[in-house]
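Hi, here's the filled form for the chain we discussed.

Project: internal
Contact: R.S.
Residues: 455
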Amino acid sequence: MTQFMVYLFFLIFLAGCGQPETTVKSNEGIFPTTYTNTPLFLKVQNTTCRTNSFRGFKTKFNLHLFMEGEKQNQTHDFSPMLQELFLRDGVVISDSLTGEKIEIMDNNKAYLRTSPTSIKICPDEDGYAPDSVEGAALNTTYFINKSNLRFTSIVTDVTVLPITLSISPSIMRSKLEKNFSGETTKTSTFMTDNAFYMPARKSITFLPHSLDMRELGMKTSYWEIPFVASHEYGHHLFEMIYKDTKAIGPDMLDCFGHSQSRNDKRLNKMLGQRKVRIDDVLNSYNEGFADLMAWYTLDPKERKVKGVKCLEVSRDVSSPRFFNGKLKAFNKEALQSFFSNYSDNSLRSCEEHRYQDTHILGAIFAHNADFFLSELTSSDDDKLAAVVAWTKELKAERKKYLLASAETFLEETVKLFIEMGLQRFARDYDAEICKKIYRIYPDLNIKECSVKKDL
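And the returned structure, exactly as it came back:
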């Protein structure tokens, strides 16, 4: 969900960093990503400002949010997040940008058409509209900063670099084709209805929504939902812990250095074949980690996604089930689908989950990590610290799993999460713990629980 600054290497990192699958419009439901000709680009509300400083002016601004299933307003002081008129502090956010225009041709070459400009907040403006660049930037900046402050107060040994925030860029995908007369024509569509993190640029981008999605029932915007901004920032926090990854080749690379030639990817897609790697499990953990960071760094009313199409229930960390009622668990159905050598290409709305989507396996991890830790502690701060400690161990032990299969990696790292949690909170493998483990991962082989299960 998960947009930001996009430069010439846009496509290289897009493949594995939160970009959902391309879909087409359907009357059956709302899809999480669209390529349309109906983008609703946000506009800068204030193009001129009578002052160059906030000295003597108010620094409190109203946020237009969507929380607990309804539109809400909050007023917050932005003085810690401003440099002169610019919405940035150089610590959490290096810059907030808008107006960038990119065109990506069908040969995967990207061209920068218009450079972005820094977003300014004018102190003599009475307020910003929810569909303005400034309004979207204020919303997302506030919750990114909130998650940063909470995280860094709990985790003091991880250096967190600033991110760049990009609001409503124009990213156009164009294809050149010859018509019946032999003339070359160009067809273009715009990337819309998404938000994502790009680790190579350490940037978060919120794309514009589209009229198509509005007509399909998406009445709110991602920048109005606190969970979305904090989730994308959670990807940045994961990158700050699990970094120093190496690129294996110059072709299509995902966030963790997996390489596959573009021709191989196209052939596999045609044949419906796929090979699941450890990187795919790591990307799922990345998604789950981001959900948990949003969950633990926001207030209870801010972290819920009630009433949000495509997110409600399925991406609610506290919900034990998906939208269709199926249990969030590492059960046979989920694992057989995720590790299958054949792609599940069935056309579905986002409310009908696909286990092969890393966001979905990530949602399973996020719910069950919180479900398990809630048996050990009621403190969200302690849970956050436990998740971070496990993520650090994943990085420290990554060489240990170089030759392991993706299935083995998942099983062993879930075991590691359970073991580290029990040690951290001085808890044994008692009957209640084993019962929860089998609810989370029915076929997980833990010898301490196997004896109790046999009894």
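Let me know if anything looks off before we file it.
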